[in-house]
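Morning. Coffee machine broken again, so started the prediction first thing and wrote up yesterday's gels while waiting. Chain of 447 residues, entered below exactly as on the submission form.
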Amino acid sequence: MTEEIKEQEKLHHVVSVENLEGLKRKVNITIDMEGVKLALDQAVEVVAKKVQINGYRKGKAPKQLVEKRCSDEVKNVALFMLTQSGFSRACQEQRLVPLSEPKVQNADIHVDGSFNCEVTLEVKPTIVPMGYIGMSLKKQTLDLNMMLEQRLSDLYEYHCVREVRKEVQEGFEVTLDFWILLGDQKINEGKDQVFVIKKSQEEPFGENLLGAKMGDIQTSSVVLPESYPEYNGQTAIVKMDIKLVTEKVKPTADQLVKKMQAPSYEELLSIVKTDVEKTIQHQERAALEEQVVDKLIEIHNFLVPESWVADEEKYLINQIKMKNPDEEVKKTFHQMAERNVKRTFLIESIYEVEKDIKITEEEVETFIKKEAGRLNTSTLALKSELKKQNMLDGVFGLIKNSKVMDFIITNAQIEEIMSTHTCHQEECLCGQECKQCFCETKNKNGN
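Came back before lunch.
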């Protein structure tokens, strides 16, 4: 469309906006007969270039003939042009930023030659960011010693092996078959049932099995509970065939080094420490960011688009693969989704105001290169896939969030709260001196 036509269109264009629920708006666009005539003339030119009419080369038929022979197509092209240009003009005049695909209704050229249509859409909320510079935050410093101790404990636990034992002792695991007999009648049975046996556990699969040997047939009497309505309160006999007895045994330090394929125990500790330090940095940063979001949401009161919240809620539920969540779960996820959407708009509003934190091409390249390394693929392949999946906007969103949060946290007043932890174990999990477990316990010599 030429500038001349655009200027002429301004004279024939009327827009009104009706506020609906939330951020929904209904835009009524009216274009008078002169404006419609301009659009129809241009539509004829568009159709004439691609239509094939007998007796004429493609695109060479007279416009009058095209208008007569292809009236429906000319009208449809004109309707599309009028809707698009009218909606574009409406967004400029009314400063509307669409967040969802606009729905066009009742678009038509009337008997008097005028055009009218209604467009329903959700618009971007207006946010004037404030209170994000000099924000007061509290940083809970995580205890490195405690987390190292827990991580080592988890490693030892993960690499435990089960060894067969002849006799059941405290904490051993028992695999057994059982039969419940009421007189000569068998009323229930179970095959290859597994139990961890501990003291104070009730019969028949409790401390009564302590001392039993693999291959034994153990017998215990029980009063049948309400889960056996026909026999509730009657005394039955439970017979148990002890098929397997095992003990969970933690590896030694040397065995753990071998399983982890580390050069030495000291090197393994160093690797674990580095990993835990990264975890602490991530968790401390995440906690600060959550505080920032909480404070920003508290300061700014604005509506969020329902469609965005619905999409985010669906995404969150799909992430945990939950089918048919109840109303309480739905409510929780709805609140989480609304918070995430508010965060997105708040970050965007601050990014738009703070001109010094704009994303550069180098930052995008660095992000993609780092992510490609993590995914063990090439930068070119990842970039191609991101474009194919229309996910580059997501990359910009992640970088934008990081840069805005960096800006806020850098300019914040942060009060550090040191956490304390004292390990009270008499012996360290690794069997070495406590200083190698990075906990605060002293060894017996006080070193």
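The first strand starts at residue 13 and ends at 19. Going to sketch it on the whiteboard this afternoon.
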